[in-house]
């Protein structure tokens, strides 16, 4: 999709990246991000009719942004089953005060994706079929003696009763088909469709349902290496750094048949490319410089996915866009990391029971782009403000491509502020901290709402020393004081440019702090 075709007043093309983009304007005083205005732009495909797939639903034209005041607005604009509708619901629930925009992108050139499931046999005992579609879980009761036709029709009825379900279910002659309601414009609008989320092996009878078997079609099964399931052996809040064998890793599966021009439907979660476990929930694990053996350090993205793998990545991205600005001013790190156990999705489906082979770095890195959440912090103190534009980059598989946060959309002189994940994550919040502290510490003879490059520099240096050097996230802060630069932009007097060339320990730069839905542009 060409983002330059989308025009939103007050936004440049660089502000808008597919799926989720937002700008946060921070004012003077002790205002926290949660009290500040937040603009969010949601981008995704519109939905099409079930019968032919030719009629676009909703009244809004593609590439024309619309203000969203409620979920009903999104439904009217792009149809009930559009990803934008589900993203809007996530944002409005996590951050009701957001100024929300939506925009549908140009229809993809491919065909709509679909998967089929064969229902066969007769139930010899009462039981249930458990089906997970996205972050929704359905349990369909099966009576003893029920035929395959009865079970199939019951599954269709249960799925069809959910108007917001992002697929069209249809059962006929022993085959249940789930049809994608949109045409995928690019990778990133996948939908996880999983069977037996309670942990029953795929293809076997469901619990106590006798001989009734629900089998996915061969193409779908093959795309997942034969068993479309994920093994999460520990809860996300209790991950340890000792699970090093392939059988206990947080692994990823992406359907190999998913191409950018195809309507995307079946996919699972993205975790780690390496045959290792997720790292501990601390920053104490050392990084192995061997380049391939990360036996004691994994990715925080794994931890978040372990709790939210059933949710579509674009929904997680939208929810996080609202949640991320509500971190408490006093402890942003704890709150950001706390997202792993927070209300990113309202309900979690149970883990799967089998693991599978790891896919290639290139496939996984492409999938990591699914939940782009770039952020632009703008600290506004009348005509003097600092712009922090932080984008999370999530690439995996090598030391050079380790997931990290990087400042973007700022002059090249600021590229030195490319800290490791945790450090840069905290730095993103220093924008509002500067506003509060500088205003509070300015000399009495300075007018209100006034700052200066020197005040900003001193605050940044002090913050790095007290908050980051003390935690060993950076080092030699004082030695770099003289080369720490904050100056007024000659081309834009209302912008302060800064350079913080602090040394960063290698182990810090390699630890991931956020899930891919919190960002990812490369």
TrEMBL record:
This is Putative tail protein. It comes from viral metagenome.
């Amino acid at each position: 999709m060409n983002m330059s075709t989308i025009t939103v007043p007050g936004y440049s093309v660089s502000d808008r990246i597919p799926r989720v983009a937002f700008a946060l304007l921070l004012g003077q005083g002790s205002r926290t991000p949660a009290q500040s205005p937040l603009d969010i732009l949601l981008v995704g495909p519109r939905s099409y009719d079930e019968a032919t797939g030719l009629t676009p639903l909703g009244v809004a034209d593609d590439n024309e942004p619309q203000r969203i005041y409620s979920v009903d607005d999104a439904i009217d604009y792009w149809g009930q089953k559009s990803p934008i509708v589900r993203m809007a619901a996530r944002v409005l629930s996590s951050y009701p005060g957001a100024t929300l925009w939506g925009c549908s992108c140009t229809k993809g050139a491919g065909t709509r994706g679909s998967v089929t499931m064969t229902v066969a046999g007769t139930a010899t005992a009462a039981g249930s079929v458990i089906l997970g579609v996205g972050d929704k879980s359905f349990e369909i009761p099966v009576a003893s003696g029920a035929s395959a036709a009865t079970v199939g029709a019951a599954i269709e009825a249960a799925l069809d009763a959910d108007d917001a379900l992002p697929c069209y279910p249809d059962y006929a002659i022993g085959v249940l088909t789930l049809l994608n309601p949109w045409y995928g414009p690019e990778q990133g609008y996948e939908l996880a469709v999983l069977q037996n989320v309670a942990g029953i092996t795929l293809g076997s009878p469901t619990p106590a349902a006798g001989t009734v078997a629900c089998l996915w079609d061969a193409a779908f099964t093959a795309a997942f290496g034969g068993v479309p399931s994920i093994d999460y052996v520990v809860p996300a809040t209790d991950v340890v750094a000792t699970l090093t064998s392939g059988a206990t890793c947080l692994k990823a599966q992406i359907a190999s048949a998913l191409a950018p021009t195809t309507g995307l439907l079946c996919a699972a979660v993205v975790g780690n490319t390496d045959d290792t476990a997720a790292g501990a929930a601390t920053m104490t694990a050392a990084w192995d410089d061997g380049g391939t053996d990360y036996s004691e350090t994994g990715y925080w993205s794994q931890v978040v996915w372990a709790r939210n793998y059933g949710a579509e990545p674009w929904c997680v991205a939208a929810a996080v866009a609202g949640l991320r600005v509500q971190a408490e001013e006093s402890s942003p790190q704890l709150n950001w990391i706390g997202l792993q156990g927070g209300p990113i999705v309202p309900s979690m489906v149970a883990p799967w029971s089998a693991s599978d082979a790891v896919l290639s770095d290139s496939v996984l890195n492409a999938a990591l782009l699914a939940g782009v959440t770039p952020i632009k912090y703008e600290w506004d103190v009348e005509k003097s403000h600092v712009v922090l534009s932080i984008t999370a980059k999530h690439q995996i598989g090598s030391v050079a491509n380790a997931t990290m946060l990087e400042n973007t959309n700022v002059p090249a002189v600021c590229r030195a502020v490319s800290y490791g994940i945790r450090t840069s994550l905290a730095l993103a919040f220093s924008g509002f901290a500067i506003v509060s502290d500088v205003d509070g510490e300015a000399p009495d003879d300075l007018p209100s709402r006034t700052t200066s490059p020197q005040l900003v520099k001193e605050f940044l240096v002090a913050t790095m020393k007290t908050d980051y050097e003390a935690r060993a996230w950076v080092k030699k802060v004082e030695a770099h004081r003289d080369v720490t630069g904050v100056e007024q932009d000659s081309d834009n007097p209302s912008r302060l440019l800064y350079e913080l060339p602090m040394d960063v320990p290698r182990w810090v730069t390699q630890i991931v702090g956020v899930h891919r839905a919190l960002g990812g542009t490369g």
